[in-house]
Amino acid sequence: MIQKTIWITGASSGIGEALFKAYEKKGDKLIISARNAAALQMLKENASYPERVHVLPLDLNEVSSFERKCQEAIEAFGRIDILINNGGISQRSLALETSLEVDRKIMDVNFFGTIGLSKAILPHFIANKSGHYAVVSSLVGKFGSPYRTAYAASKHALHGFFDSLRAEHYKDNIDVTLICPGFIRTKVSINALTGDGSTLNEMDEAQDKGMAPEKCARQISNAIEKKKEEVLIGGKEKYAVYLKRFFPGIFSKILRSAKVR
Fold first, then answer.
1. Fewest beta carbons within 10 Å, which of 12, 31, 45, 141?
2. Residues 161-182 pLDDT 10s
3. With contact defined as beta carbons under 8 Å apart, do 30 and 52 qualify?
4. What is the pTM of this model?
């Protein structure tokens, strides 16, 4: 198997950590990023091949640092083959109760942070005539849901940007895989922002009963390997995408009466 160099953002926990462990077992070279440098360092120290892991702390709010961070990532192992844009933040608040500052923060991290880093690494991909963006969106990147207005908007925006980017750089042999997880058993709801910008600090019941992040990571790595354009991951909630597409009126009625938060 050909060894690749993979850069994972949001790697300190949840899906990102599970992806790190999956790829680390395969012997790939890994660059792991998140704000929590101590957690990243612990992952490296516990790795089977720590010499193949480069810790690169990164804050998706600090757009001005992206060119420098990309240069460091490239220098770590000489090239980047895959950028997995996994870092982000969720929301649990009604639109009426959410300040515009919180809306902006969610867009800054989930959308502008993700596309900013992706654009910074793009010249490297073009020069290599090879590269792969894997973008962790969400099922609510395909349809809206109560308590997630800004979050859904940020994920919808990612689809528009990366579908366009895929078409623009097909000639450069650059691939894009959009990943849409549903309920995955991570701390995403615990860390979600409420209307005033504070964190929810609660585990959603649906999240707690969701798919194990390790299983999610296997499905993501399989989709990346097959160079799929888009993949839906989760339990029965993923079929809401098809219900929305083919029976939008019925979907809207179900969504209005659903007990979500």
1. 45
2. 999 999 999 999 999 999 999 9
3. yes
4. 0.96
